Protein 1
Amino acid sequence: MGRSKSGLKQDLVGRALRLVQTDYSPELLKNVRQLYESRFPKTSGWLAARRPEGVPVAYSSLSSSPTATSQGADYLNGISKPIQAPAAEVKLVPLPFYQTLETLLSPTELIAQNNEKLQDSQCIFELTPNQADQIRNASELRPGIRSIQVVLRICYTDSIGVQEDQYPPNIAVKVNQSYCHVPGYYPSNKPGVEPRRPCRPVNITPWLHLSNVTNRVTVTWGNFGKRYSVAVYLVRVFTAADLFSQLKLCSVESAERCRERIQDKLRFDPESEIATTGLRVSLICPLVKMRLGVPCRVLTCAHLQCFDAVFFLQMNEKKPTWTCPVCDKPAPFELLTIDGLLSEILKETSEDIEEIEYLTDGSWRPISDDKERDRERERSNTPEYPVVDICIPEANGHSPAHSSTSLTGKSGNGSVGMGGGAGGPAVAPGGGAVVDLTLDSSSEEEGGGAGGDSEDTEDSADSPAPKRGRYNYDKDLVTAY
């Protein structure tokens, strides 16, 4: 009171203690009450309820009892010690193929006992007679695998949000002195990518005592700085067929709602420079490259392209990824829906139609006819190039360049002369000119007339036959295009 409020923290604390222990007064108590009420307004009546005003307190006894401060619930002057909130419980993400029936062991953190890299942590639990009977009487999904199981789940120790299953390094699980199977790594097909391990619940049912005997589970894990928690649950296991039945029963989007969604996507936007008049959707599943059986998509995805629900559930049953095969975004089971409009289209269209187009009014049309029309247009626009048959020589030893066949199989005949006709090179069918390359420039100048000299004719008659190549045709005539 009236002293300096500045200084070292240790000195200020000592002065405050001496003040309340030796110079106690009602005015001091009133100031302490006001200070506390300003800091903790919800408990403003703490002092009046605990001690009547004006009753002196022997504070000297508080300084000599450290155990009361460390173990009791009161601080100095009767101020309540704030109660520590219990640690938030770790919550594991629900899995579509597992329905939790009972919690046998709540999420418990794996505590390292020493500085070794490999640690062993144990947890124990017992099965009630009712739980044991449920396991014994459960049906078999396949030989040795029952529909009611006891599973062990491991995740990161984090109370924020829900946690996915995550194995620690070097994990091994021993149940009642017997090691159980833990899923291994999936090999990666991409070069340079490490194989990924599917973290899913570990089935420990075959190694349990189905009685009131205590079951002991030992988890061996690698201590590399991260914190992990384990939990044990009694669950019912579903198959892909079970989930597909639930999907057909509870999550089918009507054809009218699908049309409204299409119209919303194709509605004209005056602020956009590009107007979309149609959306093409493939009837082929992107997962298996086959025609869709049950078209399915995710409600949160922006695209209208669907994938096959049966194949999607079967693939996630073996390798749970729950990722949309179209846009690679998360595709949880709760957000899957069957497209009612595309289901009707698949029933109305034939097997050869692989793609459709949605229009602005919500209608649709197949686009296979457009593909056929494009193919016919390509065939009609293909030019016809003449093909020269040079394999069969004629009697005079010349190549039959005048006999040509086009790509379409049509044939034409024409007369070819050394220097006949109009005096120029002969014209082959299709517009090509036939040129005799055996004539030199001098002979062309001398014999360039309409019929040529008689001397040229005699010389040509006396001249030897042109030499033939190894393939029995001459190389004197070439068709120029």
Protein 2
Amino acid sequence: MSYMSYPQRSTWLEFLGFPPGYGPWTYRAIPEPWISSELARLACAHVINSKTTTTGCVSLQPSPDPDDRSQDRFVVLDWDGWLFSAVFDGHGGEEAVDYVVQELPSLIHAALAKVLADAGTAPPAPSTVSTLLQSSIQTVDDALTDRVKHLFPDEATLAVLTDEQIKSTINGPTNPNNLAILRCMRGTTALVSLVDPKKENLWVASLGDCQAVLGAKNSNGTWDTTILSVNHSGKNPAEVARIRKEHPNESECIKFDRVLGAIAVTRAIGDHIFKLPVSYTRRVFMNCIPGFSVSSKLEHFLPHNKSPPYLTALADIKHVALQPSTANASESFLILCSDGLVDLYEHTNARRPTLEEILTQWVHILGERMDSRGAKVSDGADKENAALVLLRHALMAGGADDPDRLAQMLTVEIPCRWMDDTTVLVQTL
């Protein structure tokens, strides 16, 4: 869409929390129905249909700057009736998240095929599937570590190498070692769901701060919300307590609600700057070209890296036995999203809702929509894409729908990224 034919207006984006006097910036006042079409286009809104389910998908980063392109990824697959879905929120660069998208689904598929073969005609035990999900995620992260340790087995090895020797080992546009190192310097969260062919069992593996929510209609005809993800961040008291217990007498292992005062998530794939001894960062990662793309300055937190690892790739697994009432395709759905969707509710005119309130609100929005339409939560038309409904609600911060606010969010001309990468999947069960 060309914006040039629409009137140009000014905005201070105060609803996003920008300080007074910061601006103004211009945007294009695109009216309905074109601004809704533009949202669907920019979010690549589409629906994936399989034999037994539909999945509404959106992924949005409206900044036109190539350096701000989204590092979110998602995958939706049907393995002979087994439904695999995943959302990955990459950070610091795309190398780690692209590697995980490439490796993790096939690794889980192979592990599941072996479990099914071993089980014969009997269904696999839920705990067995939980274990394979957890171990597969850990295996992907371990492979990144192993590649670095293959090049530089230990700190003693690093100590006898010159910087030039290290640079020649890891740098060069066609050097495979370069990509191996970059994957360890970047990171990603992981949120994975798996549903069996009879829709009797749902598993969710969470690593990081993405969100998974099950919405199901109960026998009273109202909608129940079940949160299936764990928020692995420095704002989770349980995670803070765990890390402090693992690193006693290190007062700054958590600082400003961040690990070492630098990274928000407490569990991730990659991010080996927080997993390996500091000499690997100073001697290997800091000699890599291209270098780091992090908001925190290395010298501010490296002195506090005393007893790594501080981050783990151990995923939390939740299993739900889907009851007959929640196995009906018109009476239950699963929401998977990156943390960008929640972040859009941060700046509201009223009290900011809690995470639990936001997730419950999503279930009620989609549940009531299903009740009123007497239809599935998502069908083959983008205008019926339930993920797009949630994205638009979040862009309004839960308030009244405002096409002009939407136009500001999508077309503002500002020299920085003004919202986080945001990905949403909504899947019928």
Protein 3
Amino acid sequence: MDILPLAHHLNALAFLMLLLGSFISPFSDSESSDEPSNICNYERLSEVKRECNSFLSTASKLKLDIEKAYRMSYALSFRYGDWVQEAGTSPLMPFEDDMGKNFSDSESLLKLVSFSIMDVDFSHLHEDEVRVCGYLSIGITRNRTLSNHADDWSPWFWKEPGISELIIPFEGLYIETEGERLMCFLGTSVSPFSEGFSDLLELPIAYSSDFYPQSPLLQDDRVMLVLRYPQTFSLTSRVIHGEMRNSNQNSNPKYFDKVYISSQLGYYSNYQFVSEKLILEACNPYPCQDGLIDGGIIQDLQFCKFFQGLSAEMFDVVGSSGCDGTEEHCYNLGPFVLGNEVKRTNGIQDKFRIMMNDPHCIPGDKLSKLSSAKASAVFRVVSSQENLFIAEQRSGLSGMTLSAEGTWNFSSRLLCMVGCVGLAETGSDGCNSRICLYFPISLSITQRSIFVGTISSINNTDSHNLLSFRKVLRPPDVLNKYYDYSSSCLSYKYSKIESANILSKRNENFNLVTFMKKSFLKYPCVEDTNNITSLSQLSDELSFDTSGLPNPLPNAHPPKVYVTMEILSLGSLFGRHWSFRDFSHKEGSKILTNSDFTKRGQLLNISAHFTLSGESYVHISVLYLEGLYNPLLGKAFLIGCRDIPLSQGPMNITNPESRMDCLIEAKVEYSSKTTRWLINPTARISITSQRDVEDTLYFSPISIQTFLIPYSDNSKEFIFRQNFEESFRMLVLSASIACILCQLFFMERKVDAIPFISLTMLGVQASGYVLPLVTDGAILFKWKKFQYSDNLLDGGKPMWLQVFDCTLKFLSLTAFVLTLRLCQKVTKARLKLCTSLPINLRQIPSDKLVFLSSWTVHIVGFVAVHFIHLKKTADGIISTHHKLSEWVTDIDEYMGLVQDFFLLPQIISNVLWKTQVKPLRELYYIGLTLLRLLVRAYDSIRDPVLNPYLHKGDNNRSSVFFSKSEDIIIMTILVVLAVTVHIQQGNFNKSLVK
């Protein structure tokens, strides 16, 4: 009996194994596809040996083990090297610039070349040679990347404005000599200049694809490529040299002048630290100054981990001193040779940055002493216009690169390196630069750099000016890339707390407003200042990244600015605390809390990184802030420091504060958390200079009001607003019902005035009560939100909200029925009046003219509102997707105005009928007017509901139709209408008395 179930289990197990195999096989195929595959036929081997005979004759016996042979295909490939062409009349390829004919900056063009080994034929391994094949990608580009791989084993060329690229497949032989490794190839190319060639004896080939259609080009199989690699990878032995030439006659259209290629060994080559002599000459005695850094030690293997993490990091150029007025010094950036490109620029430091690539690091001396480490890297000058992705992968060496190697001292946290500019391969020649790298472990308002470096000359025979560069630590770096290093090694030292306390006292105003704020309003704060999780959450809450406007607005179209404030430290916390990371806040961080100030009034020490974008704020685009935060008032009183531009003052590299302007005061005021359900959070920023007006570093006061600051969770505010607005609707409807009942009771006593009540007015009110019931729309006012925002209740309304909806519909239906009762009484009274008067005296009130007059006014008003809406759409204040939706929105919004102006028909009827009675009770029309005012005022005060995930930037505009100023005008008209009715009825009473 158990055999049948067992068979079912076996069948299920077999099916699962088959399914698992179907999943595993694609992955295994994809993994194996990363390895070089044998796609070459090696049909030209005899030609290769004939053309490369001069190189093959010098070959020595190969020493290839399995591991070396496997790594060879990766170690011999390189990406984004440089190439230059011999001066002549036959260029390699055409290039069409995408910058226009008037743009002549040819030095910003990049000539890049990549080479990839596609196959190493180990099955035919000889004593002194091995067959290899690969493809060369060579091109000219201004700011675009070249292809990563060839589509097939065929040559092709394509160009479009801004880029030209030629792919050439090669096959040849790999050999080794006593001094180098060498590959000699023959390749098949296409001639980029042979388009439209009419010689039928030549064999044209065509390359085309959906993306790069090309005309037929002539095939050229007389291309020779020689690549030379050093046997060892070290400071002065790292350069890959190449030469590509064409064997055709100069008169042949396929001929091109000789091309020279340069690159360097990379990740798959083992770097050897063999430059002790050069390092000793540069760093003994140790020349680097340690005045920038406080005490402390980085232990174990942290330095190597951190140093290698700096790969592809961009460093800001702080200054280049020592310019004596000569071209050689003033037009170069330290040891880097930039040439004519700098002569056309103003402000070298603003135009260039330094990138560090190819870091190598081993801890200890021969992996034994952990008191030091050996490190090497390549420093490259990068133009501000250059594509950073391309710059990160470039491997060519030139006057804009500096290869460096040195020793790290753990006790002093200083790294001293010797640097070689460009293709320096002759020992000490060209290696005349000393690089000193500092790694501070204590940050302050004047020292925010996680990495500070200087480059100086070793001797005076070939000296260059001193260059300083740095990497400023921003709070996002603490959270992400440098989290481990920051949490274990870095701390913050406050130095401007006393100045911030003086600023705080100067701004203290003990008045009724301050007392009310402290008593009833709650601002971002923490209950326990020693709870680092709460401090981390508060740091996130005090940080913002949003747009803003000058306050007050200088003109009708003020420039929009972008404001960022990132909290670096708060109270006893540096950076952030993430509980999901295994990290406990260390007591050894030694953040100075200055307890005399922080305990009094629960003030918190705070430091931040502040940026301000906009043409008017270039002089103060970055501020380093430090001071005190008062959680009772939601205000931060801060002292700011900024870097002094080199054009405004001298530079002292050993003293950071001497090149900073710290006579700046800033105040940041946050909005209350108590009112977030009604008003979205914003911040008001004021920045002033404490210098004299005549001082060159003085700047005018800056005041900015930010737009909405998104925060992570608004569910509580969302639910509170839902409850409040539903209750508010019920209150308004209940009060409206009470006003209608008062009018009904009034009509029982004033029977003679009933016919003079406008039916048009009552119809307007009745439609306002019944239309939401028919269309299932919002009652009284809509839910206010940002466009494209998701409703938190889209998944379905909870039970309590459904109860609210039912109650609102019942109240709205009740108000509608009572209004119909008013209409019925008015109609009956007019019929009774018609039958009681003689035919010659019948002047029964009629609403025909009242209706036409009222809707004529409303049509004119609607046209005006529509044109205002169109202008807002054109100015980008609001946005719609379709013309039909604009009309629907305008009609929908104007119907609300019709409800607000419900007294307009009654005013018109009083004028047309020359009414001599008092048809409306004051409690009725004044009460309903006050209720409409209350609804309009609330709608004007409340902000759209925040969606923290979609509200980012200007793409998510508000769905608000009327601005606050327009709402004020509407409310003023409401009051005028009520006052007019009151005056009319007052005149009626006077006439009756007479």
